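Colleagues,

For the teaching module next term, I've prepared a clean inverse folding example: a structure given as tokens, and then the sequence designed for it. I'd like students to try predicting residues themselves before seeing the answer, so please don't circulate the second half yet.
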């Protein structure tokens, strides 16, 4: 009887933690959807890196007696940002050109066979069965499964691709996305993209560093009041010219705003002893949820 009561209590707390996490998703979705104009999205806006002291939105938000939620993410410099992540600060492995993926891999793991692995990623996702030079795509007979020849449904699916191992995947997973899976192509928001993603666009180390230093403002930190984001692609192009930075090979992918955002919301019930996490990816243009995961 005692055990049964305990289990019932645990189930109740689990359900409460899940509802709290969902409340965080609802809050985050409202904040990002209520921003109507996404021609420019920057890291110092309230959806991305909110000032929780002045305007509590995402950090340890208490809901009655049930518990609390927190919507946050670890920025690549290890600071915790309270808000939503820009999915277009990542590289879309479904739509990015092969050379962009190759540059990301070689930057994050210089010892890897980046060219071959990125070719294998392209072979995996494209419908044809031969490379441009006419050579056959890898057949995966030894692995015991077939090559997909269609788009990735999730990032970890890339682990099935020849040459991709857990070590390399762990290095790149924070910089890749599969959303949008089809349709709108690949865009990279230079206001939110971290250094490895700017490198993947074709910028040098020094130029990628200069871009971040410019957008981050005088304190040198992304996501603070003094940030100076690029207002649109023309402004970015003008900045590059004035700074003497050559246009990168993949300039066509550059954008300054985003349509896709990732929410990671944690619900805490029973004094924080029971935690549930909801991760979702939303399209602000379609107003729809592309991905939803509860754990
Ligand atoms: Ca193929
Ligand atoms: Ca700043």
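(Answer key — instructors only)
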């Amino acid at each position: 009887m005692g055990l049964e009561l305990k289990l019932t209590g645990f189930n109740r707390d689990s359900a409460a933690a899940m509802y709290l996490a969902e409340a965080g998703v609802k809050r985050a979705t409202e904040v990002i959807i209520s921003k109507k104009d996404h021609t420019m999205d920057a890291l110092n806006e309230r959806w991305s890196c909110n000032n929780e002291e002045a305007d509590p939105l995402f950090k340890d938000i208490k809901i009655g007696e049930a518990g609390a939620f927190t919507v946050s993410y670890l920025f690549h410099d290890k600071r915790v940002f309270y808000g939503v992540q820009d999915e277009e600060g990542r590289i879309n492995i479904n739509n990015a050109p092969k050379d962009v993926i190759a540059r990301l891999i070689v930057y994050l793991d210089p010892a890897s066979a980046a060219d071959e692995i990125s070719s294998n990623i392209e072979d995996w996702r494209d419908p044809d069965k031969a490379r441009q030079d006419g050579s056959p795509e890898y057949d995966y007979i030894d692995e015991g499964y077939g090559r997909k020849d269609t788009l990735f449904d999730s990032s970890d699916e890339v682990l099935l691709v020849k040459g991709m191992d857990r070590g390399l995947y762990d290095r790149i997973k924070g910089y890749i996305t599969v959303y949008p899976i089809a349709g709108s192509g690949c865009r990279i928001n230079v206001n939110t993209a971290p250094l490895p993603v700017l490198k993947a666009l074709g910028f040098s180390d020094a130029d990628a560093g200069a871009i971040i230093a410019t957008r981050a403002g005088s304190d040198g930190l992304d996501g603070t009041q003094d940030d100076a984001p690029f207002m649109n692609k023309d402004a970015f192009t003008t900045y590059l010219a004035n700074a003497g930075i050559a246009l990168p090979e993949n300039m066509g992918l550059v954008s300054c705003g985003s349509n896709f955002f990732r929410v990671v919301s944690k619900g805490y019930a029973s004094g924080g002893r029971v935690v549930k996490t909801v991760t979702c990816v939303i399209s602000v243009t379609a107003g729809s949820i592309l991905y939803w995961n509860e754990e």
